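Honest question from a wet-lab person: if I give you the sequences of every part of a complex, can you actually get the arrangement of the whole thing, not just the pieces? Trying it with mine:
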Amino acid sequence: MSVAGGQVAGEVVTGEAPAEEEASRAPLKRRDNRAWWLVLPVVLSVAFTAVIPLMTVVNFSVQDVFSPVDRVFVGLEWFQSISRDPEVRAALVRTLLFSAQVLLLEIPLGVALAVVMPRRGAWVSVALVLVALPLLIPWNVVGTIWQIFARGDIGLGGWTINNVLGINFNYTLDPADAWITVLVMDVWHWTPLVALLAYAGLRSIPEPYFQAAQIDAASAWATFRHIQLPRLRGVLTIAILLRFMDSFMIYTEPFVVTGGGPGNATSFLSILLSKIAVGQFDVGPAAAFSLLYFLIVQVFCYVFFTVLTRSGR
Amino acid sequence: MADIRLEGVAHSYDGGRTWAVKPMTWTWRGSRAYALLGPSGCGKTTLLNIISGLITPTEGRIYFDDRDVTGVPTAGRNIAQVFQFPVLYEEMSVYDNLAFPLRNRKVARQEVDRRVREVSRLLGLEGVLGRRSRRLDPGRQQIVSLGRGLVRSEVAAVLLDEPLTVVDPALKWTLRSKLKEIHRDTGHTLVYVTHDQTEALTFADEVVVLKDGAIVQAGEPAELFLSPAHEFVGHFIGSPGMNMLPAEVVDGVVRVEACEVGAAALPAGPVRIGVRPEFVRITQERVSPGVPARVAGIDRMGAYDLVHALVGEHRVTVKTEAGAPCLPDTVEFLHFPAEHAFLFRDEVRCGALAPLNGRGQA
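Yes, you can. This is the full assembly:
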């Protein structure tokens, strides 16, 4: 695409499709490639910040690095060992389960929140600010808030569960409690994003649709099911993609709250990866791990996107 | 088929500073086809939404026969409404769209099927019943919306808010005559909102002309054409609209410039003579009482000619037979036949131009 764009930018417009070789030969003479210079800054900055670092990772993933001057080419060995590593596999299952739960909770909750948010009047801004608040808090602060909030001794939430509800709750000892804490924290932090996207989607529905629903004596549920939900398809596709990617790559909050524990209970892929890369400084396996991780995210996003957009036709 | 009675109904969107609909008392009689005609922003849609209950009027009460429905929500009023742009349940099939209003009202399955098939036959939708409604072109989508408005057999009225705006012109005519046909068959009360006079005049038993939130005249198409009660009706209906010529009443005699054109039993003061281009007669000789006018131009329209004449500063259009023998820049005389020339004061009709009968002639 950028090739065509570059040529068009530098030429006198001829109205010919560049795909037709024969037809565009004559106009080609009048073209020049100066427009490429305009793209150069972007190419350079993307290369510097994304392509070259990624290639470095690719480079590490096929070598065993002992020191900066002492390295051995090992082919796909790291990929094999990482993909067979039971710890990595357990983390992958854990992360997938976490993402699935996040989507199942946050998408319906966010839509429900958007539906009940006021559509007009002074309360609109109040509701928007209140809902958006969690989104404005930095990740590690969210982690810290919940780390304290969920504690049984000094945290309001943890203390209430233990002493008012009488349920024994301790996220530092009980794997299930730790999982629930991280999950609820993510729901608290990110449902607002889904809600805001859905709210924007709902606001874009023209008034006559709701009027027609009234005329047709549609119930509130039928109105939601047949008018609001179909028109949320676009924003929900985006919400699902964003929430999947984000939850699949979650790192900071569980790192702050549980540090991946107790045991490996909340040790998601990203936490395991950073343990290998930064903790053990095994750059070869870590690089292979990263690339596989990246690939999984891409595949899932592609599948989600294809399924969601196809189902709309 | 109830009568829908508005009593002192008025609506303001801004707490009473301006009125979208000014206090009006009016009855839509059962089983008639009405056209609600007026320019954009005159309150047509507001009035429609008041009838259907989408808007609760700021003032006044609404009755369906003797039942006060002012506070009754839309679903309880048994009104069907079709909007200006297609409003569809997009992921449903055409069939399900048409069935939706019936299913919500717990109509028996066989009856739903019978009604849907009947309406789709009337509107030519049989071939697309299984299609997903959003895949249709906008014109067809609007026909489906129309079908949803017509599918319920027991409605107090069907309200149509400029329903043919998105339908292409060729289909417009077909659909309009279909609507008339359906109206004849079903006897629904129809209120058809439009700003297009042709649409209004060809469609309706009775045309209600709305201006600035008030009804200025209501009547049969011929009545509005032949006997407009308000300058606006004169302008708005007819093509070209009615001529309005400033004049003066002095001692019961109507004068244009210095010419006496007729008599009127009116107090002295300025009036405007309203006469349709179809009824102005233009002659080369002065047939008394005639007003001299300079011919400014002639539009040859094929079937007829439009002669544009200037009386002083004021333009008067005359519709003549094709091949009018007028030439630009010649002086001709205009005659206003008494039975078709009306006098307006403050935009409202206050009388007709009567023959002079020898009075006050110079």
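Two things worth pointing out. The first helix of chain B runs from residue 44 to 52. Chain B is about 25% helix and 35% strand.
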